[in-house]
Specification:
246 residues; alpha/beta; Glycerol-3-phosphate (1)-acyltransferase; 7-stranded mixed beta sheet; 8 helices; 15% strand
């Protein structure tokens, strides 16, 4: 098991070493091209890791619409799972500045049109989030882990950061809650061994943000995610169509 995990890590490292420069070059031409490279990186990493993504939707999502996706966070594999579960959308991550220091990966992250925030500087973080509205006007969707970091993995959600909700309210873009389940079984919060298996992604129906105060919006999204994370998939599931990335 240890040897297999080491081989998986080496495979991911090699994939990253090849794809990161390609992502940077593509990003110099068009951020959408960079995201296509990133999606290929995700698919290869899932294949190397022996991880399968099972995705269900509680309602149809217009592939031409813009959304703010908000997901719970238990594992580093949550990022891969969400990208795989939303193939028809161009996603841009709201990522903490510390991730840009990760060798090779951080280099690609900085140069591929994602939204990098410095959480130690509140004013700068809010300015960066507001600038993200311009990306959304170009048809890009934003994905945020509102907990800000990985939670304990038992279904309990950490307190939500407010920035993503400000972004949704200022842009008027609906929030789509996303529940990721099983990521910690693949790679735990404090572990390094990668286990093969399934990760389930339940994509909720869009939640309008108009007419709500920020704290009320946070409460509603949190309640929806709490309902989605521990339990069975809800009523009407829409099969995922593997549409081309725009």
């Amino acid at each position: 098991m240890v040897v297999l995990s080491v081989l998986k890590l080496l495979g991911i490292a090699l994939n990253t070493a090849v794809m990161a420069p390609a992502c940077v070059v593509a990003g110099m031409i068009d951020g959408r091209w960079a995201y296509r490279v990133a999606r290929a990186w995700v698919r290869i990493n899932l294949l190397v890791s022996g991880v399968r993504i099972r995705s269900e939707r509680q309602g149809a999502l217009d592939p031409n619409a813009t959304f703010v996706f908000m997901a719970n966070h238990q594992s580093h594999f949550d990022v891969l799972a969400v990208v795989a579960a939303l193939p028809e959308f161009q996603l841009r991550w709201v990522a903490k500045k510390e991730l840009t220091t990760v060798p090779v990966f951080g280099w690609a992250l900085r140069h591929s049109d994602h939204i990098i925030i410095d959480r130690s500087d509140h004013a700068q973080a809010m300015t960066t989030l507001r600038a993200a509205v311009e990306k959304m006007r170009r048809g890009l969707c934003v994905i945020i882990f509102p907990e800000g970091t990985r939670g304990p993995g038992d279904g309990t959600l950490l307190p939500f950061k407010k920035g993503g909700f400000v972004l949704a309210m200022e842009s008027g873009v609906p929030i789509v809650p996303v529940a990721v389940r099983g990521g910690r079984n693949v790679l735990g919060r404090h572990g390094w061994q990668i286990h093969g298996g399934d990760i389930d992604v339940l994509v909720g129906a869009p939640m309008p943000v108009g007419g709500l105060e920020r704290d009320e919006l946070i409460r509603q999204v949190r309640e929806r995610l709490e309902d989605m994370v521990p339990g069975a998939p809800a009523a009407t599931a829409v099969p995922v169509r593997l549409a081309e990335v725009r």
